[in-house]
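Check the record.
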Amino acid sequence: MENDINMDIKTLWKRVRPKRQPTSGTAITVDGITYKSQDELCDMWRRHYQALLNEQASESARYDSNHADILCKQLSDIKQLSNSSDDPTNTLLEPFSINEIANTCKGLPNNKAPGYDQISYECVKYGGYKHLTDLYNNIIKFTHVPQVLKHSVIIPLYKGKHKPRNLVGSYRGVSLTPTLNKILEKLVLNRLKPWLAHKDFPPPLQQAGREKTNCVCLTYMVLEAIRDAVFRGSKVYGCFLDIKSAYDLARVRASCEIVESWNKTQTMELI
């Protein structure tokens, strides 16, 4: 059933996407000033995202105390885990084999946008894995990710849903990170998955970020809960929460400062 659902969704989007009408460039108005040319738009977006980052930096010292307590508690759990026999360190810090990297890369999708270095998944697949294995094993050995793998390019994408195209709020910033860094993250995640599953993470009711689940599965779960409540004569309460500009308002700097204030274990450094 799960395979059929996934196949139907893929087939649906293959048919829908070609029918979408291409859109031309549009002017953006910010504080009464309209930007039209490509250079003007690029400079406007640069200043917009720079302002968001500076706003996060100015608020980093005033983060919510409850948020800080939750993060400290999570860090404390990780630190205790690092000193226990259930620590995933031994698995995470084992050198990568060429076969492990090859199997991970073979499952990567094609025709995806690369990062600033223009290295795509196809380049990695047909370029061989020996040097890639050496790179990742040195990262594990020194528990240090090169800074060049952390740079990203931010692309504004139109949110759709008939939002006004001339407003900044109608666009979502998407970061294009280097392919080599995304592959490393996938390798680490693959090693963490068995341990996370043993810890029941993510929770069974969560559909996002879990294999063999999607919105269709979640819809069936919600409908079944409603039918069960109606059958028993119970009331049904629904709550739909959508946080406006959730990522833009997230205090990333504050969270990083809390993490950096702890004595990291080798595992935490790699993660």
